[in-house]
Amino acid sequence: MSDKTDGVEKKAVERRGGASGAGFMPGKSGNPGGRPKGVAEVVEMARKHTAVAMQALVDIATDDTKPPAARATAAVALLERGWGKPVQPTMEQDENGKAVGRGLVVFAVNMPKVVE
Asked: How far apart are CA 15 and CA 32, in angstroms?
């Protein structure tokens, strides 16, 4: 599509992406340098300490002298890493948009026996 205003031809340019809403010119990246190099190093370092971090969560969750909020937070972190985050209920709607019930996705898993 082109438009002439005051004798100057203006062409519409398709823009894509971009958080600002202005988008990117065709053939141009919003992140030309790619992912920063330091990110991979941080991920690698964190993964090397996974066992230590998990043990720290276990220590906090099982320590009766720790505040209940800290124990609960550690327990949730352990459960989510082992079993994933819980499924959230969804509202079902009729043809008029009125809520008519709740839907849940339920997964059956063999939970391991807790050993103390």
From this structure: 16
